[in-house]
Amino acid sequence: FCAGPVLFVFSWHFVAAAALTPQKAPGRCLRVWMSDAPRDAIFVAENRFVGAVCWFGQRDDVFLVNRLGEFAYGLSYEDSGSRELDIDQVKALILEDARTAPLVLVLTTKSYGQCERQLPQPSRQQRRDGLMWIEYAPPTDISGPVPGQNPDAPGTPEKEDPMIG
What we know:
- By secondary structure, the chain is of the alpha/beta class.
- It has helices at residues 3-19, 27-34, 47-57, 72-75, 87-95, 109-115, 139-142, and strands spanning 42-46, 63-65, 84-85, 103-108, 124-128, 131-136.
- A 6-stranded mixed sheet has the order 3-2-1-4-6-5.
- The protein starts with a helix and ends in a 23-residue tail after the last helix.
- 21% of the residues are buried.
């Protein structure tokens, strides 16, 4: 009777790591993806990922898009309302000529699929088990072709996921 619980306790970390998807535990993906992002990047995330983006990116300036969820109360304060964006505001921020830093969206694949047609073509995107990292270079960088890429080739460059293997 004692062996079952003891084996369960010692094997749980192996079982849990395999069972958790990046949507539920995005830390591993975010750590890898954020290592390529400049420190001055602008982050926009869904409510389920805001905490993880703040924690793993060591940031306190993340914008919120789509549903507010538990952040509704905090955003009701006068000085916090500007942190909430709708998809049209995100598009305007992406296309803003004065923006000098990259803009990164952290969304679920489903959410990005719903708004993908409303947004311009990203300079880089990555996906892993329902989690999306969509990066937009500053407007000054968007005008030219991406180095090493055929400018006549259709589609968006999508990096190989370093965590698969």
